[in-house]
């Protein structure tokens, strides 16, 4: 008799510094690939499928990422997390698991994604902080950056902020909020005494969109791009050379779903 397929939503954290992104790729280590390898070890001979709520680039981390597990066997929810975490590497941790219905669609059900981009400026920082934030050596006009961040809010044509867009892609996107805040750092001695975070929310983002937005804000801070140029770029009336901010400062902070 054919077993009934079960569906589970699993929340994970991961440090992306040693991974080549989320999605499996031949010849490189990825987060999904490591998760699948671990599940194969635990559930030998049982068919399953893993589908993420989205993809992160190489070296991008996540504090609240999700994937759906399609399983041809029922999981003991109480024992799953301890067993899964015991076999996962140190830089991936499962936080929760819940059963969902067959009608749940992990892609279409996303209501909002929140990303944080951590950075400091003015000096080289302790290398131990590099997996979590970037250090811009030049001084930046942080007030100008804070003002410019608000320009990205709302619905715009973000073609200027899509890395190598494919033909016929819809580059109209809505950013629900976008701001730069000063961080309240922990007492860890390898974090700089002063740092900042770009906080951005929206239902979905294109390839390297947030890193291109952050790159434009860095150019604002350096005085190489003006707020007027940013505003024109969002109207399709002005183009400036793209700058993709480094990946390691970016963290997928949380995902909200509609159908839960």
Task: Please summarize what this structure is.
With 260 residues, this protein is of the alpha+beta class.
Secondary structure layout:
Layout: E1 6-14, H1 31-42, E2 48-52, E3 61-71, H2 77-87, E4 92-99, E5 110-121, E6 134-136, H3 142-149, E7 154-157, E8 172-182, E9 196-202, H4 209-222, H5 227-233, E10 250-257
Parallel strand pairs: 3-10, 5-6
Antiparallel strand pairs: 1-3, 1-4, 2-3, 5-9, 5-10, 7-8, 8-9
Short key terms for the protein model shown above:
Alpha-Beta Plaits, 10 strands, ten-stranded mixed β-sheet, alpha+beta, 2 domains, 260 residues, 30% strand
Task: Give a verbal description of the structure.
The chain is an alpha+beta fold and 260 residues long. It has 2 domains: 6-99, Alpha-Beta Plaits (2-Layer Sandwich); 111-257, Alpha-Beta Plaits, CATH 3.30.70.660. 20% of the residues lie in helices and 30% in strands. Strands 1, 2, 3, 4, 5, 6, 7, 8, 9 and 10 form a 10-stranded mixed sheet that branches. Strand 2 and strand 3 (61-71) form a beta hairpin. The mean pLDDT is 92.
